[in-house]
Specification:
Layout lengths: L3 H17 L7 E3 H21 L30 H19 L5 E5 L14 H4 L2 E4 L10 E7 L11 E3 L3 E6 L3 H7 L13 E4 L6 E2 L5 H10 L5 H10 L3 E6 L7 H15 L4 E4 L14 H5 L2 E7 L11 H10 L2 E5 L3 H5 L8 E2 L6 H13 L1 H6 L19 H9 L34 H6 L11
Parallel strand pairs: 2-3, 2-4, 4-6, 6-7, 7-8, 9-10, 9-11, 11-12, 12-13
Antiparallel strand pairs: 1-5
Helix pairs in contact: 1-2
Pfam families: Glyco_tran_10_N, Glyco_transf_10
Enzyme class: transferase
Subcellular location: Golgi apparatus, Golgi stack membrane; Membrane
């Protein structure tokens, strides 16, 4: 039984919560009221939680212990926590059972099509749970609409829904790096403090992980379109190569990172590297039509997968997955930190500019690989591996992971390299009964983890 003093505190707390909840009308709040409401509750609810810590919440995985902190190996980005491996193995069967019984369908609304382009989003119920994804704003107040996704480019506070339910997740979505938002568009993001519940970006520490692609997807696409004999396919791919290095680029200098990579490539050419440059930045050179782009890349041994930013956390785009890996060339990478690349790319698949003390050494190494077939092939052997040998195998991403969150079966943040108890309200394993709030979107996206990426934020 709680002591008298604690009982008094609980009583006072409940009175405060009741007063603040007067603003709620049929479970809806205005945007402004919601922000004020969440600031008050962020202070009060943790106190109440501590006082009533014996209260049990519904947990579809209540027979599995999940108290662990994930650690990652600095050189490979893979988990070194034995407990995590055991948890993942134990969860596999339980997750399948929950998914099979997950028949209630929730709705996810994408509030505005990103850059005006709508796409078809069909989620596999057997993997994600039952969710319908649409652009139908008319469903926003429907009781089964559990998440509304807001793409950063079309986002305006005055164009968001004027009311919202407390059980509805607001998701902030961006596939662009910090420079594209802060430098190009002048977005401060501070106006969105306490507005969103979840982040969905390319960063591995996002609440919803939304990469441009995964090593598993890349490998499965390659092998599914092959002959069924990966070794034979690899030899055939290498045999068709008749040129050394290609680079296709259209952003010539919109950000500091884009300017840096333009100079970097020119310096490589000056150091003796033969680079076939194509794309919008080189209109006088032979064009690379998108329909034939991968076929053109496949004739080259190396592709310069250079990002338009430098050391932006996890910012690794289609330049690597679609152009280099999809085109069948060994990527020479520049942009994210080496540790970020190694956490997500196939093993021994990339050549890192940051590994070389000077560009002449890099040029010499590429020329060595060009003449040494055995050494070159080592960078392509991952194409003959099994999908389960790829990083992050088994991790659900994007809208599929969001659907799992809505059904209380989100196990995917076990892969989050920064996961700890402070992330337990994402929710993980259905432990959170109400959506938590991203207190400072600006600090999360522009803050300490991106300090090398932005000089000022």
């Amino acid at each position: 039984m709680l002591e008298r003093g604690i009982m008094v505190k609980v009583f006072v707390l409940l009175i405060v919560l009741m007063i603040s909840s007067i603003y709620v009308y049929y479970n809806f709040l205005s945007i402004d009221t919601f922000i004020a409401f969440t600031k008050t509750h962020q202070v009060l609810l943790p106190w109440l939680s501590k006082l009533t810590s014996n209260t049990k919440q519904h947990d579809p995985f209540n027979n599995i212990s999940t108290s662990t902190t994930i650690k990652t190996a600095s050189n490979q980005g893979t988990s070194t926590d034995v407990n995590l491996i055991k948890i993942q193995a134990n969860l596999s069967q339980k997750l399948d059972e929950v998914l099979q019984n997950s028949t209630q369908q929730y709705s996810i609304i994408i509030w505005e099509p990103p850059f005006g382009a709508k796409s078809t989003n069909h989620l596999d119920q057997s993997k994600c749970g039952a969710c319908d994804v649409s652009y139908d704003k008319g469903k926003v107040n429907d009781s089964m609409t559990k998440a509304v996704v807001f793409h950063f480019n079309e986002l305006r506070l005055n164009k968001m829904p004027q009311t919202r339910r407390l059980d509805q997740y607001y998701v902030w979505w961006s596939m662009e790096g910090p420079p594209a938002l802060r430098e190009l568009r002048g977005m401060k993001l501070s106006e969105y403090d306490n507005v969103f519940n979840l982040t969905m970006t390319y960063r591995r520490d996002s609440d919803i992980y939304n990469p441009y692609s995964t090593a598993v997807d890349v490998l499965q696409n390659i092998q599914s379109s092959g002959s069924g004999d990966p070794d034979k396919d690899l030899d055939q791919l290498i045999s068709k190569k008749n040129a050394m290095v290609i680079w296709i680029v259209s952003n010539c200098g919109a950000t500091k990172g884009a300017q840096t990579r333009m100079k970097l490539v020119q310096d490589l050419i000056n150091a003796g590297l033969p680079v076939d440059r194509r794309g919008g930045c080189f209109p006088k050179n032979k064009p690379a039509p998108r329909g034939q782009q991968l076929e053109i890349i496949s004739e080259f041994k190396f592709y310069l997968a250079f990002e338009n930013s430098y050391h932006c956390l996890d910012y690794i785009t289609e330049k690597l997955s679609f152009n280099a890996f999809g085109g069948g060339a060994v990527p020479v990478v520049f942009g994210a930190k080496k540790s970020d690349y190694q956490a997500v790319v196939p093993p021994n698949s990339c050549i890192y500019v940051d590994d070389f003390t000077n560009l002449q050494n890099l040029v010499n190494y590429l020329k060595y690989l060009d003449k040494n077939a055995t050494a070159y092939k080592e960078y392509m052997k991952w194409r003959t591996m099994k999908p389960e040998e790829m990083p992050n195998y088994g991790r659900s991403t994007s809208l599929c992971q969001l659907c799992r969150v809505l059904h209380g079966i989100n196990v995917d943040n076990l892969f989050n390299p920064f996961y700890s108890e402070r992330y337990s309200s994402i929710p993980l394993f259905g432990h959170s009964s109400t959506p938590r709030v991203v207190t400072s979107l600006r600090e999360w996206f522009y803050g300490p983890l991106s300090k090398d990426c932005l000089v000022n934020y």
